[in-house]
Amino acid sequence: MARIGAFTMDGTRMLTCRSCGEDTLHPERYNIGYNYCMDCGDFRAREERAGWCIAPIAHKQGATLVTNRNDLKGLNKYTGE
Asked: How far apart are the first and last CA of the chain?
């Protein structure tokens, strides 16, 4: 008898990922609040990280998260802006 869909090692049926629509979402990930499989979650995280930068702002302040590209351009004292 052939099984339809994906299963975990203990025989639990995998859930459907909201992004790719495949049965690749592990039930434990769903139980802690994730709606995406590992592959789609990794892709979404990479897209999110591409939109921000960590930059040193002032002397002894440390690094600051910058999400607006125009703010980042204005922080460089050598650009003359």
From this structure: 70
